[in-house]
Amino acid sequence: MRHFLAAILAFCLAGFTTPAAAEGTFHGEWQQVSSNAGECATCRLTIHQSGTSLRVIANNDWSAIAETSGDGMADGAGFWKRGTRKTYSGKSFDIKLRRNDADELILLMRIEPIRGQGRTIKGVFQRIERLQI
User: Fold this and answer.
1) Domain 2-11+23-127 classified CATH 2.60.120?
2) Could you report the per-residue pLDDT of 79-105, keeping only the tens digit for each?
3) Which of these, 22, 18, 13, lies nearest to 48 by C-alpha position?
4) Angle CA(93)–CA(97)–CA(103) in degrees, nearest 5?
5) Separation of CA 28 from chain center
6) How many other CB atoms are found less than 10 A from the CB of residue 130?
7) Which residues contact 57 (CB under 8 A, 6 or more apart)?
8) How far apart, in whole angstroms, are the C-alpha atoms of residue 9 and residue 67?
9) Which helix (H) or strand (E) holds 105?
């Protein structure tokens, strides 16, 4: 837990630098296209990238922070919002993000054990392109 809090503090102190830094490998909005936890046509991620630091916010009540390793991969930790009726309410998890050759985002989320068993959720996301006016 102490490492997780230290990572949050480091991320917050890093701030957001320039627009160029925000146009990183992971930055942007992502739409889920498949998952071993069930299909979800409305599941999305918003990733804010500042240098090697990522802030990941999901529209289904979880968030995480991660650090990139410079090779299209990132590792971090997060938690599911407490007080929801979702299965993982209040649970923490480790997260791995990877970009593949098809320009997709692969997410692996290892959730802390529930009744003695952990679970790994794998999701595949595609970037949502912004409409140009």
Assistant:
1) no
2) 999 987 778 889 999 999 999 988 899
3) 22
4) 150
5) 11
6) 8
7) 45, 46, 47, 48, 63
8) 13
9) strand 104-114
Q: Provide the residue ranges of all domains of the chain, joining segments of one domain with +.
A: 2-11+23-127
Query: How many Cα atoms within 13 Å fall on the side-chain side of residue 69?
Result: 10
Confidence of residue 130 (pLDDT cuts 50, 70, 90): low
DSSP E strands: which ranges in 22-72?
A: 28-35, 44-50, 53-58, 62-68
Tokens of 11: 């991320």
Give the Cα separation of 78 and 94 in Å (integer): 6
pLDDT digits 0-9 by tens, 109-119: 999 877 777 88
In this predicted structure, what is the pLDDT of residue 9? 43
Predicted TM-score (pTM) above 0.85:
no
**φ/ψ of residue 85, rounded to 5:** -90, 10
